[in-house]
Amino acid sequence: MAKITMTVNGKEHSGEAEGRTLLVDFIRGELGLTGTHVGCDTSQCGACVVHVNGESVKSCSVFAQACDGAQIATIEGVQNNDGTLNVLQAAFQEHHGLQCGFCTPGMVMSASELLKVNAAPSEAEIREWLKGNICRCTGYHNIVKAVQSAAATMAGAAQAAE
Amino acid sequence: MPKDGGIGASVVRREDTRFLKGKGRYTDDMNRPGQTYAYILRSSLAHATLNNVDTAAASAAPGVIRVFTGEDITAAGLGGVPCGWQITDKHGDPMKEPLHPILAVGKVRHVGDPIAVVVAETYEQARDAAELIDVDMTDLPAVVNMRTAETSGHQVHEEAPDNVCYDWELGDKEGTDAAFANAHHITTLEFINNRLVANPMEPRCALGDYDENDEHYTLYTTSQNPHVIRLLMGAFVLNIPEHKLRVYAPDVGGGFGSKIYHYAEEAFVTWASKQIRRPVKWTADRSEAFISDAHGRDHVTKAELAMDAEGKFLGLRADTYANMGAYLSTFAPCVPTWLHATLLAGQYTTPMVHARVRAMFTNTVPVDAYRGAGRPEATYLLERIINKAAQEIGLDQAEIRRRNFIRTFPYDTPVALQYDTGDYDATLNAVMETADYAGFEARRAEAASRGKLRGIGLSCYIEACGIAPSALVGALGARAGLYEAATIRVNPTGSVSVMTGAHSHGQGHETTFAQVVSDALGIPADQIEIIHGDTDKIPFGMGTYGSRSLAVGGSAIVKAVDKVVAKGKKIAAHLLEAAESDIIFEDGQYKVAGTDKAKAFAEISLAAYVPHNYPIDEIEPGLEETAFYDPKNFTYPAGSYLCEVEVDPETGKVEIVAMTASDDFGNIVNPMIVEGQVHGGLAQGIGQALLENCAYDEHGQLVSGSFMDYAMPLAVDLPNFVVETVEGTPCTHNPLGVKGCGEAGAIGSPPALINAVVDAIKGYGIDHIDMPATSLNVWTTIQNASAKQAAE
Amino acid sequence: MYAFDLARPADLAGAVATLQTEGAQALGGGQTLIPVLKQRLSQPSVLVDLSGIDSMKGIRRAGEFLIIGGGTTHGTVAGSAEVASSIPAITALASKIGDPQVRNRGTIGGSVANNDPAACYPSAVMALGATVETNKREIAAEEFFQGLYTTSLEEGEIVTAVKFPIPVAATYQKFEQPASRFSLTSVFLAKMGDGSVRVGVTGAGADGVFRHAGLEAALSSDFSAAAVDGVSVDAAMMSNDLHATPEYRAHLVKVMTKRAVAALS
């Protein structure tokens, strides 16, 4: 066991972790942030995607101790400060990009990184980017629409700001 | 125009807000004070005698609280996992129903069969200790292939000779034989319906919590129907009366059938929490899910279709082997029988149908309903053999169907169903128009210029949803009625709590049901709360599966609303000093017909709870009504799907270039949600037809035991879908006129896709390919056909 | 997972020292090793996390070589302007590994050291005749890969960099396994400065990554699809599983090679 500290959604948290404790188990168990989910054990489904130091990672495939001192962003920190859904979250709701909701946090965390590195992704680019996120409910159609719509909204907002 | 937020409006889902914020509450998110963790040691062998399980070292390991084996379960006198449906075979005898123990005793019968459970302070401690359990087993030959299970010489269960669970038939055998004797042409097709794993993204989880003071148990579980779990587990396994047992399924992360059933783990954690006087939690990881969740499909069928010279169907014969796996899961026996053979008329007037189904025990994971449950298998059978027939007699795939459509309703099929309504030409015409069927040959030629083989495949499905009239299913062997219950609690200031026995695992009931109630009561949806999933709060329920929630659960809600309004009218009549028969209720107002006198819904609600000035002896205070709705018939959604693919002949890789669905779901409450349900069904149907294959080797080892080998459809594998609903034919016998949409996509798409692939590669002399049409499968099929052509 | 200690050395010397511990094992990005640990197929006493060693990260051009540090992630390689201008086929290869999250963690050193028979990188290392640099020595590609999950790395030896000769042209043609999305059969084809053509194949071989002498000879004298057609690829040396027969893999070797030829023509 070792004591580790990380900044999660802007707040510093400390806790105990074994060498084998995965980041996802630390986030869910030690910090009680249960929005990050576990859907597989082969680093494939992406239900556990969070950001570590600004990059999306599968928190089931990173050790908690390896994130000592890191900046972590989880789904719980995505919404606007006033508690409303941010542009991407709102687009998922508007376009019915979720059903059971289990893969959704990982989808949002993955897609938010895409929109950071590619402000206007094509449909093919979105589908390719989401290779690490499995959704069993939606057939992805509406997820793709949601991401495209969020990109357009963000582009519109950026243009308006200029 | 739909009312704002009422029936017909694409209202965005209220439940999304919590899911998108990471505030959903799934079972594994629940934790109880003093909680312990269970790790289940499962069999690594498919078939073995269990000689001894030595738990001494494990019991002494750090953090271990108790280790349980099958002997403990036996000593405690617990029942086996019950089966909810009894099939009577063709000789009039009941199916073979061997004990399905909570933990294995004497023998293990599939890889994954639970042998022992370690309960410890942490999950890792439990798993560490499980390695110290010494299991003495003697390997036995495994029965894996259901086609040869009868003659394998090995028995999965002593009480099921030749591994036959039942040999069942439906339809007029002599009449069908006579139809074949007079046929102009007979088409034969032998095929498999591949075994699948449902794989909802949330793995199963169960948390048992025994309260010593009240002698009360709570089970938190990932379930599509908590009341059924309470009934089966309480009455048949643990002998706990209902008032001492709460089953609560909070948010459920997908199910697709696999979370209908009562599983051994649920009974175990509930029971064990009393043994150790602490809460016990078990959460499956994905690898464990693959060997412990009920699988789906898995049929081998020989089908024959008899036609006259014009391509009119005269008779259909189907001989199916259906895999039950090692034990009977809750609904397993009814899937290949009453949910499959009864659908073999499809959309067609085939006068004679005979089906034989042999259900086999094998040393594999139990098989049960998976999205569509029997109906995808029936649709695949029909829609494949029809395309093969069309190919053989040189008829267009749409034309052969048109020549055989049912056009008068109600229609009694030769396989026990009565279709109340439908318009199959409407969906066929719509899909052909939308997908530009007429322009296909030009697209095929264009693709050929790029070296691609393009094909188009049609499928016209019908399904039976809204299971089901209780008297009917009782006669067919169901051990429960399949009504649904609802309570409408009108609160004093006019807001409404709706308790429903249906339970969403992604369908959006909180939104759709609120729309139904909002529409009926004329109050805003935000004044309506939907409560589900908790046996302590809801009178009763049969749960969500078989596309029944709106058709049956929604109808129960409507019935309860009607009772509320009827009572409201009595109160209003008194307050408005009018005759009860003069009170009408519309737009949220109780009005005296022909006057401007009216009371708002909330005013009457308050009056119900503040009964100062009405006759208590005539009208009881309060405004809460419960209704049980038993459906009069199944509902019959139907539709036509067209799939277009391009095959790369060099690699065998299939690309879906278009998938167009045209459905008749009757009335629609929330078009956005309905479309989403079709999308999801399409993805799973495409998954079955193109990617997914649950494979065992000859020793009964699961070869595709993780996402590394079981191919789940990803975003890159799927096209954008074109989904449309026609101006439907409303269901004639439920108050909403709704039919059900949850399974359609998974039913209609596999034959459409395979028909398209066969159409693309028919130039090689190919008339069939089994699912899944992986690149390996397509390439190998082309190679074999080419070799055969070269030899001829 | 079995219990182990996680060591996070800040420099190579610290990592090498810790790896002397009995039962110690190196951890690159963990995208393959962690799932293996979850299945309890490996039981290290100490896992030495190499991700904190900055000297093992980075990409640089050194004359006719492109040198990628062993701790460099696939994502970094995929996004590197230096890689794109030197060997764009490696950009393409890295951007096709796994998914964005795997690429954000997985490293080239981890990939070659693991020598998964379906991994992408070994095909490039073989086809380009790259040199694997370790804390002890330089190892030629041919010598480095020793069959399935086996390399010539000694106990405690760490891949610090991979040094790729820069080809005249190269391309990576990936055909994915439908479930894992690893390579089912993929071909890395390179035209080298000396006029030779080299073909590295991953995903297909029963003994892991290999170069195909017949294809190389044929293409060195005639760089055309027709030349590929004339070569026999032996199914007997291919692996067999749920997703591909040896015959199918042998066939795909030629199909992917032809597509590589087309891409460079």
Please give the largest β-sheet of chain B: 7 strands, mixed
Strand percentage of chain B lies at 15-25%
* Number of strand elements of chain B: 28
Rg measurement of chain C, Å: 18 Å
Strand order of the largest sheet of chain C: 4-5-8-6-7
CATH superfamily of the largest domain in chain B: Aldehyde oxidase/xanthine dehydrogenase, molybdopterin binding domain
Task: Give the number of domains of chain B.
Answer: 3
Q: Output the structural class of chain C.
A: alpha+beta
Explained architecture:
- The complex is a heterotrimer of chains A (162), B (792) and C (265).
- With 162 residues, chain A is α+β, with helices and mostly antiparallel strands.
- Chain A has 2 domains: 2-77, Roll (Ubiquitin-like (UB roll)), CATH 3.10.20.30; 87-161, Orthogonal Bundle (DNA polymerase, domain 1).
- Helix content of chain A is 36%, strand content 15%.
- The radius of gyration of chain A is 16 Å and the shape is globular.
- Chain B folds into 3 domains: 16-22 and 483-629, 2-Layer Sandwich (Aldehyde Oxidoreductase, domain 4); 31-140 and 204-283, Aldehyde Oxidoreductase, domain 3, CATH 3.90.1170; 295-467 and 633-791, Aldehyde oxidase/xanthine dehydrogenase, molybdopterin binding domain (Aldehyde Oxidoreductase, domain 4, 2-Layer Sandwich).
- The longest helix of chain B has 27 residues, at 549-575.
- Chain B is built from 19 helices and 28 strands.
- In chain B, helix 9 packs parallel to helix 18 and helix 17 packs across helix 18.
- Chain B starts with 15 loop residues before the first helix and ends with a helix.
- Chain B is α+β, with helices and mostly antiparallel strands.
- By secondary structure, chain C is an alpha+beta fold.
- Among the domains of chain C are: 5-51, Uridine Diphospho-n-acetylenolpyruvylglucosamine Reductase, domain 2, CATH 3.30.43.10; 168-265, CO dehydrogenase flavoprotein, C-terminal domain (Enolase-like, domain 1, 2-Layer Sandwich).
- A 5-stranded antiparallel β-sheet of chain C has the order 4-5-8-6-7. A 4-stranded antiparallel β-sheet of chain C has the order 9-10-11-12, sandwiched between helices. A 3-stranded parallel β-sheet of chain C has the order 1-3-2, with no helix packed on it.
- In chain C, strand 2 (24-27), helix 2 (33-38) and strand 3 form a beta-alpha-beta unit.
- The longest helix of chain C has 19 residues, at 246-264.
- Classes of the chains: A alpha+beta (162), B alpha+beta (792), C alpha+beta (265).
- Chains A and B meet through helix 2, helix 3, helix 4 and helix 5 of A and helix 1 and helix 17 of B.
